[in-house]
TrEMBL record:
Keyword annotations from UniProtKB, A to Z: Methyltransferase, Transferase
Residue span, RNA 2-O ribose methyltransferase substrate binding domain: 44-118
Protein's name according to its UniProt entry: TrmH family RNA methyltransferase
Listed PANTHER family: 23S RRNA (GUANOSINE-2'-O-)-METHYLTRANSFERASE RLMB (PTHR46429:SF1)
Low complexity: compositionally biased ranges: 280-292
Annotated SUPFAM superfamilies: alpha/beta knot (SSF75217), L30e-like (SSF55315)
InterPro entries (UniProt xref): Alpha/beta_knot_MTases, Ribosomal_eL30-like_sf, rRNA_MeTrfase_TrmH, SpoU_MeTrfase, SpoU_subst-bd, tRNA_m1G_MTases_N
Feature: compositional bias, Basic and acidic residues: 1-13
Keyword Aminoacyl-tRNA synthetase among record annotations: no
Single GO BP term: methylation
Positions of the UniProt region annotated as Disordered: 1-36, 280-299
Composition bias type Basic residues, residue spans: 14-26
Length: 299
């Protein structure tokens, strides 16, 4: 659901009016406020879905909230004084001054402690994980998180460098998913992939030049733990990553456009992976044949 259309305030014309008001006199003050550095480890999260998920996450520490009367009603926050942190009723322009005029905050913003990334040892018995190889755009990473949670991915693995830090932009793109997925940070991706192999994960890198269709690759490893590895748009997987994963697979696209945004490709890949996992879990029918699929990779 696209929550940008949730209130009249978020319309195109409303955003233009806000920008016009700032150009007439409030712009410098708002720009200063939105660019003011926050204390280390504190992030501003905004948007109805984002804040609702943060409020419901026991692992999230919230320090304060700014909220409009309309947003409080939509979030069913009837008594702000009952919240375990300070919450202030404000006009939308007060939140604009903190988030910047382009942020679609929908009338609510919280300042919260950033979530702490977990080590690889926190994977536990996860069966399906995503690995990102230097995907740096926070909009893409947020959208990937949203798809990952929708398809039941238990963890998202990124590198400590060349990955976006938690931010309002990333959290808004994730639409609440940031609070529902285990975030794991590693220093060296190739070493982490080898650790996944030791944990009996089959690692499959998504690559437009992959020798096998993704459907065939995941069918070959039915019943195994799976780590899907995706690279940044343009450059794709790094050479070391390509050499380390157990297989390279492609999404077949018969149309004139042969590539997708990385977040869209992730959603399709997860649908394929989840569909094959569910099919493998079902007892085969009496008529079903089970030929071996010759994916000549080092599983």
């Amino acid at each position: 659901m696209n929550d940008r259309t949730g209130t009249p305030k978020d319309s195109h014309h409303a955003r233009l009016r806000r920008a016009h008001r700032q150009r007439k006199g409030g712009g410098a003050r708002a720009e200063h406020a939105s660019n003011a550095p926050l204390p280390e480890g504190i992030v501003r999260l905004y948007g109805l879905h984002t804040v609702r998920a943060a409020l419901d996450n026991p692992a999230r520490t919230i320090h304060r909230m700014s909220i409009t009367r309309n947003a409080a009603r939509r979030l069913e926050l009837d008594d702000l004084s009952a919240l375990p942190f300070p919450a202030e009723l404000v006009e939308p322009r007060a939140i604009d001054a903190l988030t910047g005029p382009e942020a679609v905050h929908q009338g609510v913003m919280v300042e919260a402690q950033a979530l702490s990334p977990r080590p690889l040892s926190a994977l536990g018995d996860a069966a399906l994980v995503l690995v990102l190889d230097q995907v740096t755009d926070p909009h893409n990473v947020g959208a990937i998180m949203r798809s990952a949670v929708a398809f039941g991915v238990e963890a998202l693995i990124t590198t400590a460098r060349h990955s976006p830090a938690e931010s309002g932009v990333l959290a808004k793109a994730a639409s609440g998913a940031l609070e529902h997925i285990e975030l794991i940070t590693v220093r060296n991706l190739a070493d982490a992939l080898e650790e996944l192999h030791a944990l009996d994960f089959a690692t499959v890198g998504l690559d437009s030049e992959g020798a096998h269709r993704l459907e065939d690759a995941v069918a070959q490893i039915a019943g195994r733990r799976l780590a899907l590895v995706l690279g940044a748009e343009g450059k794709g997987l790094r050479q070391k990553t390509r050499q380390t994963v157990r297989a390279l697979a492609r999404l077949d696209m018969p149309g004139a456009i042969r590539s997708l945004n990385v977040s869209n490709a992730t959603a399709i890949a997860l649908y394929i992976a989840r569909s094959h996992a569910e099919a493998a879990a079902r007892p085969p029918s009496r008529e079903a044949a089970n030929p071996a699929i010759g994916v000549d990779q080092k599983y």
